[in-house]
Amino acid sequence: MIYFIRYWSVTIFILSIIAISTALIAEFIFNFLPCKMCVQQRYPYYFIIIIFIFFYFFDNKINLWFNILTELAIVYGLFYSIWHVGIEQQFIQGPTNCSGGVNKASTVEGLKEEILNQTIVNCNEISWTMLGLSAATVNTVFLIFILLLNTIFIIKVYYEK
């Protein structure tokens, strides 16, 4: 348990690098273009990496603030990943500029504008799967896992002292 507590922040940092690396490899090596919701789901990992570097190298210690900021970033990521899963499963609507389709435009110029503003990749289409799960679903499970472990860590280290 001591080993886990001592290196938890490094573990979160490494997991964030793995998550971002996986997304970037899928995008740039395997040419799976992300939709807008996929890109939104990357921001928490970038944030965690940046705050880890700040706390580790500039503050010379990892403290409660790192874990709280990590918790908030994960909740932000969960919001978008759960929303994205709901869009993929057609339980909920996505943003109008992300879910494809063309609304009824009243003019030719309006129709042209809608077509030009459409994204290349629709959020409601699953680009790739891993073990039968979409990338958004895998990300949701991954974020829930990190959230639970981070919450347990905060309770164990900071509230049980």
CATH architecture: Up-down Bundle
What structural class do you assign from the helix and strand content?
mainly alpha
- Compute the number of helices: 7
- Main sheet overview: 2 strands, antiparallel
Q: What series of H and E elements makes up the topology?
A: HHHHHHEEH
Radius of gyration: 19 Å
Name the assembly state: single chain
In the CATH scheme, the class would be Mainly Alpha
Task: Look up the CATH topology.
Answer: Bromodomain-like
Average pLDDT works out at 82
Number of structurally distinct domains: 1
What general form does the structure show? elongated
| Share in β-strands | under 5%
Helix content: 55-70%
What labels would you give this structure?
161 residues; mainly alpha; Bromodomain-like; two-stranded antiparallel ribbon; 66% helix; 2% strand
Task: Give the structure's gist in a few sentences.
This protein has helices at residues 2-6, 8-28, 36-40, 43-58, 64-88, 108-117, 135-159; strands at 129-130, 133-134. It is mainly alpha-helical and 161 residues long. Strand 1 and strand 2 form a beta hairpin.
